[in-house]
């Protein structure tokens, strides 16, 4: 057997060393290739799963309310997942001092494992119950309506009805938004259709009243900088007679109108705001005036908003015990005025729906959302209202931790 020369051995060992380094680098790269996709798929899967659970729980509570049951919410407080990425690599070979091929063996691999821990929180307690049972604030209505959502759908979903008021804000009568009182329900629906027509034709304004309130008049000298800094929104102006007037910028209550309130004098906006301030926080002011588009169907008063429990109850009862019915537009509403029968159609049967829609299973029956843009939007609004109403879930129940 012929011995290898020294320079041949060095050359061969250098080749093996380079192969080992290349193998290690390949193993590291392979590990990163496995780790990143696994993390991405897991995060997206958890996000989609929790989203689907939230929708099912909302539908489950509607099903409960349809049988006069008690609503109950559970949320996933946190998901802590530990990812272990393992890579291995080996290089081996043999050097033979003789003719024949020298063998170089390369082995590499990568694996990933996941150990998630879920924290499930039953949402209970006094604070949460208050948020469910208390009427929604006008800020919830404004947050949704200001985004350009169909005003008919928002008002039908959130409103107990309309408190019609006299011009000075005194109570006149109430229009109930409930099919159990057909005449009032029809009147409410026709007004909601009228608002939707105004909105489609860009004659409807939903905004907060903004005006300058006069605090001081006839000052002989302007206020000091220190006084202006103490109160936010203060400013002063010199009158023609040389005296100074101090005013404060005010962002007031929400107004639904058929005119642009920004065009009103400050005194008129302040008068309207004073009337609105006399109402509770769950009232949204309405002022549809005769001298503006759609004024043939005038209205002055306020929407009285429901609580979240009442919203769920209204939808649940509409499934069977107190269904909504078709209502045609008022003759004073011009153009098209087609209105869906249900503000949010929920169907139920002993078999699952054919369409890919939010669904749940309760007491041997399937419940699902109607397969229309109107119903999908309504269900989205319902979940959005829940998020706006119940913004904090910490310390509202005893968490249950499940490790997989």
Q: Could you write a compact summary of the structure shown?
A:
This protein is an alpha+beta fold and 404 residues long. The chain is 37% helix and 29% strand.
- Globally, the shape reads extended
Counted by DSSP, the helix tally is 9
Strand content: 25-35%
Order of helices and strands: HEEHHHEEHEHEEHEEHEEEHE
Summed over residues and divided by their number, the pLDDT gives a mean of 81
Helix content: 25-40%
Describe this structure in words.
The protein is an alpha+beta fold. The protein has helices at 6-66, 126-133, 138-145, 151-158, 182-200, 225-230, 266-277, 308-319, 373-389, and strands at residues 73-93, 104-123, 159-165, 171-176, 205-219, 234-238, 244-257, 283-288, 299-305, 346-349, 359-362, 365-369, 400-403. The strands form three sheets. Strands 3, 4, 5, 6, 7, 8 and 9 form a seven-stranded mixed β-sheet that branches. A three-stranded antiparallel β-sheet has the order 1-2-13. Strands 10-12-11 form a three-stranded antiparallel β-sheet. α1 (6-66) crosses α8 (308-319) and α4 packs antiparallel against α5. The longest helix is centred in the N-terminal third of the chain and has 61 residues, at 6-66.
Entry keywords:
single chain; 404 residues; alpha+beta; 7-stranded mixed β-sheet
């Amino acid at each position: 057997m012929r011995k290898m020369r020294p320079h041949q051995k060095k050359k061969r060992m250098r080749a093996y060393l380079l192969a080992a380094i290349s193998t290690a680098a390949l193993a590291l790269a392979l590990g990163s290739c496995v780790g990143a996709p696994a993390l991405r798929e897991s995060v997206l899967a958890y996000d989609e799963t929790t989203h689907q659970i939230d929708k099912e729980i909302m539908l489950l509570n509607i099903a409960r309310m349809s049988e006069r049951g008690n609503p109950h919410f559970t949320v996933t407080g946190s998901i802590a997942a530990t990812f272990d990425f393992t890579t291995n690599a080996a290089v081996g070979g043999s050097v033979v001092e003789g003719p024949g091929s020298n063998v170089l063996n390369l082995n590499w691999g990568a694996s990933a494992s996941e150990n998630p821990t879920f924290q499930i929180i039953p949402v209970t307690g006094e604070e949460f119950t208050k948020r469910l049972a208390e009427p929604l604030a006008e800020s919830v209505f404004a947050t949704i309506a200001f985004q350009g959502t169909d005003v008919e759908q928002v008002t039908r979903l959130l409103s107990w009805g309309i408190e019609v008021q006299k011009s000075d804000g005194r109570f006149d009568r109430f229009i109930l938004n409930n099919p159990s009182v057909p005449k009032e329900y029809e009147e409410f629906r026709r007004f909601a259709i009228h608002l939707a027509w105004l909105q489609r034709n860009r004659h409807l304004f939903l905004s907060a009243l903004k005006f300058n309130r006069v605090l001081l008049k006839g000052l002989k000298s302007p206020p000091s900088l220190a006084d202006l800094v103490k109160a936010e929104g203060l400013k002063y102006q010199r009158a023609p007679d040389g005296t100074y007037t101090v005013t404060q910028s005010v962002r007031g209550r929400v107004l639904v109108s058929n005119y642009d309130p920004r065009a009103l004098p400050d005194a008129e906006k302040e008068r309207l705001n004073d009337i609105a301030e006399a109402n509770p926080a769950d009232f949204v002011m309405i002022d549809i005036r005769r001298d503006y588009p759609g004024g043939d169907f005038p209205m002055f008063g306020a929407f009285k908003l429901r609580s979240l429990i009442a919203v769920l109850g209204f939808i649940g009862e509409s499934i069977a015990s107190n269904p909504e019915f078709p209502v045609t537009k008022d003759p004073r509403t011009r153009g098209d005025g087609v209105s869906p029968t249900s503000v949010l159609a929920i169907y139920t049967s002993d078999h699952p729906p054919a369409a890919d829609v939010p669904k749940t299973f309760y007491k041997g029956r399937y419940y699902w959302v109607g397969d229309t843009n109107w119903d999908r939007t309504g269900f989205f609004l319902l979940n959005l209202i829940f998020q706006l109403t119940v913004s904090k879930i910490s310390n509202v129940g005893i968490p249950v931790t499940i490790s997989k």
